[in-house]
């Protein structure tokens, strides 16, 4: 599962009981001494219910407020069923990327960070400056998770999780963040190619995350055209899923109709193109209090009520990994 959890900050500095059942929202917020607010208790529970309802083996999460937040989410909302893997990245907002791997997956896990890798990018004003600019890295990171067979030590699967540069450009130096996002994406593909070379193209790889743009090879935004030079394919392109059923993010403003778009992806290397049930590849709607799926919203208030502005994406891959 790929899921942008939208500001999953969970700082429980003053928590003195594991029972959160009767906490009010005010009491919940008072558990933290941090300057940033905790994600609301209602939204946090709803997010966890959405994960538990699908029972995924692996969840890649974007916008997590560090390892402590991930551990708190797992312990208090997911029954401590997962192992938590997260390394602090480069985000200036403290929104990191990390993994939850269910404890039933009997693999040795190794998490690698690429936050210090240069993306070979300069803004225009840096190119014109007399003094060379400091090299730029990823806006967040590329979180590389390797899963090894515990008995043989054989590498079974590699996941490359990413949260690419957003479209925000407050300083007006890179309209839409396009230039930097392109550099991050192309560096991500270089990391992918490095893995293929290292493993002699024998190990399946998934590249997944929030790409902050339309990255599928069938119709990519300009910064993602390099995807066509690889064997990576969006699971929905393989399944020929209708475009209307691929939307992963909802944007609502008072001046226009709601905009639904796909910016969250699970790409698979050629080893996995035929190794999944096409029916399993789907965008997962959140369910309201009546248990009914919420797929669309019409107002900003309705959007804000959801646990995240992104919907989860998931697929069942057929990989020979032992389970407890």
Name some characteristics of this structure.
Deoxyribonuclease I, Chain A, 324 residues, 4-stranded mixed sheet, 6-stranded mixed sheet, alpha+beta, 25% strand
Write the layout of secondary structure elements.
Elements: E1 2-8, H1 25-29, H2 41-54, E2 58-64, H3 66-77, E3 82-86, E4 96-102, E5 107-113, H4 124-128, E6 142-149, E7 155-163, H5 178-198, E8 205-210, E9 233-234, H6 235-239, E10 249-253, E11 256-261, E12 264-268, E13 282-283, E14 286-287, E15 293-294, H7 300-305, E16 313-314
Parallel strand pairs: 1-2, 7-8
Antiparallel strand pairs: 2-4, 3-4, 5-6, 6-7, 8-12, 9-12, 10-11, 13-16, 14-15
Account of the protein in words:
With about 325 residues, the protein is α+β, with helices and mostly antiparallel strands. The chain has a domain at about 105-315: Deoxyribonuclease I, Chain A, CATH 3.60.10. About 20% of the residues lie in helices and about 25% in strands. The chain has helices at about 25-30, 40-55, 65-75, 125-130, 180-200, 235-240, 300-305, and strands at about 1-10, 60-65, 80-85, 95-100, 105-115, 140-150, 155-165, 205-210, 235, 250-255, 255-260, 265-270, 280-285, 285, 295, 315. The chain has a 6-stranded mixed sheet with strand order 5-6-7-8-12-9. Strands 1-2-4-3 form a 4-stranded mixed sheet, covered by helices on one side. The protein starts with a strand and ends in a 10-residue tail after the last strand. The relative contact order is 0.14. The model has no long low-confidence stretch (mean pLDDT about 95).
